[in-house]
Amino acid sequence: MSEVESFFKSAFSVDNVIFGFDGGDLKILLIQRGAAPYKGKWALPGDLVYPNEDLDTAAERVLEQLTGLRDVYLEQVRAFGAVDRHPLGRVITIAYFSLIKISDYTVTPASFAQSAMWHSVNKVGDLAFDHKEILDSCLKRLKRKVRMAPIGFELLPPKFTLTELQQLYESILAPPKGIDKRNFRKKILSTNLLNDLNQVQEGVSHRPAKLYEFDKDKYEQLVAEGYSFDI
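Given the sequence above, the corresponding structure tokens read:
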């Protein structure tokens, strides 16, 4: 084998970091591997890329094959290429991440995924390969992105309270002392992206709270004019 040929002996894989929100807790979708290496260990839904497919196609294929999830928006984060990250040889992986509403999807494990379950992000233990490092990196990306774009609104009901919105941000950002209620409400209302529906909650045991909706059209218009979302 020539020196040049040795450069073409590395494999590529994709690993999907799927964050989910269930109304009160940020979770991560993990599979339990039913095949070596790391058989029986929890891992991110990932696998090797076929020689004839591009990375984005591979990420979508692997996610559907292992978990049954499809039509999920996946954003490429970064590559992980430690020489010894895979016990069978040199494998460079590309990490993708997404944030979805858990109730909108049904997980059906297949292929070498022995099972697939949602786990609280704060309670994830050791994972196969370097998947804990990948998860931590994607979580940092999510925390930055949720501050700069209103991506979390799609995880809430069409009509929501400011308390529900704050709980969403707290579940993602996980500040040690929580988020100050007064400051959060002042800042979020100052964006002028919430429409007061002049409605309140129904069927609750506590004092009904006001309901709002996110004005997506207004947000897109403001972005076109140079607006920068910042929480």
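The CA atoms of residues 79 and 94 lie 4 Å apart. Try to locate this feature in the token string yourself.
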